[in-house]
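[Automated response] Your request has been received and processed.

Submitted sequence:
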Amino acid sequence: MQTNTKDQVYAGFFVRLTAFLVDMIIVNAALLVIRIPMWILSLNSPDNVLVRDFIFQYSIVDIVCYLLTVLYFTLLTYYTGATLGKKLFQLRVVSTEDRKMTFFEVLYRESIGRFLSGVIMNLGYLLILAQKEHRGIHDLLADTSVIYYHEKKVYVHTQMNYRNMVPQPGYTVPPQGGMNPQSGNSVPSQSGINPQSGSLVSPQGDINPQSGHSILSQGSMSPQSGESAPRQSGINPQSGDRVSSQEMTSAAAPVQSSPQEPEDHANVD
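Generated structure:
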């Protein structure tokens, strides 16, 4: 049974009763540490001052257990707003005046208020069924109410700026360059990477596939020795030796024969 008023959902009678039973199970289980030794003491010595009637039919052990029970409800309600049973059902005790409850108010609610609620056949607790805000006598006396308390987890998505991210192993890459896949160092955009040695290669050159060294663009490469040749030189495709441009020009130039003088076929007298 729930009633929603002013954005607050008041806890009904049955859920509060269930939470109270859970609390009493927890308290009584903890008090067995005291009750079992005292019960053994009462069997051996019934006239012991601790187990015999002290006030009416209550012994000193009963009074101590009652005070510990009140202490359990008071401390948890004051510091956390709910006992373990209430936390199980997401309930919380709050002040009707929209402020934090004082320790005296909580103590008054959990001691005298609960005593008055259970005096005449628990009519003070049954008043929760008739109240619009589901408040018992102990709630009315202490100006409190029990509401549902739901904790909401909000996940905030943070926008990632991938331009500012630093690649592993920690070297920053300028926007105009790339990255060396072997060493991880940044490479300017004007250069490339030798895949064998991992060294920089200028854009004016090429890579020798045998030695892995860079070759300037002014020259070519010998297919046998793998050495670079300057632009003024060429490569002999048979021997693989470097040939100067003059020799290449003379070797490539067609042989021009000198014009022959016409023979004189005149008859010699």
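Summary generated for your ticket: The CA atoms of residues 182 and 198 lie 6 Å apart. Residues 1-5, 216-220, 264-269 have pLDDT under 50 and may be disordered.
If you did not submit this request, please reply to this message.
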